[in-house]
């Protein structure tokens, strides 16, 4: 995938670190797609236990950022 269609951010949610990959233009998708990758095992457990909360935080703070 060309690098212009992929944005990568390192984020922290509740003291757990993740790598957020945002895919801007995937074939067959109209909206922005994203994935998170935990840095360690405790972050993976947190993501598994708090999926809904994590989705909400990522979408409001990192995907659809308010424009200044």
The number of domains: 1
Report the helical percentage: 25-40%
The neighbouring-strand order within the major sheet is 1-2-3
Helix-strand pattern:
EEEHH
Structural category is alpha+beta
Give a brief description.
The chain is an alpha+beta fold and 68 residues long. The chain has helices spanning 41-49, 51-63, and strands at residues 6-13, 16-23, 33-38.
Keywords:
alpha+beta, three-stranded antiparallel beta sheet, 2 helices, 32% strand
Could you please describe the fold and organization of this structure?
Helices cover 32% and strands 32% of the residues. It has one domain (3-63). It has helices spanning 41-49, 51-63; strands at residues 6-13, 16-23, 33-38. It has a 3-stranded antiparallel beta sheet. Strand 1 (6-13) and strand 2 form a beta hairpin. The mean pLDDT is 86. The radius of gyration is 13 Å and the shape is globular. The protein is built from 2 helices and 3 strands. It is α+β, with helices and mostly antiparallel strands.
């Amino acid at each position: 995938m060309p690098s212009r269609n992929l944005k990568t951010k390192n984020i922290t949610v509740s003291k757990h670190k993740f790598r957020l990959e945002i895919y801007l233009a995937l074939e067959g998708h109209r909206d922005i797609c994203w994935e998170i990758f935990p840095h360690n095992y405790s972050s993976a457990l947190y993501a598994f236990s708090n999926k809904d909360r994590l989705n909400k935080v990522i979408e409001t703070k990192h995907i659809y950022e308010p424009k200044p």
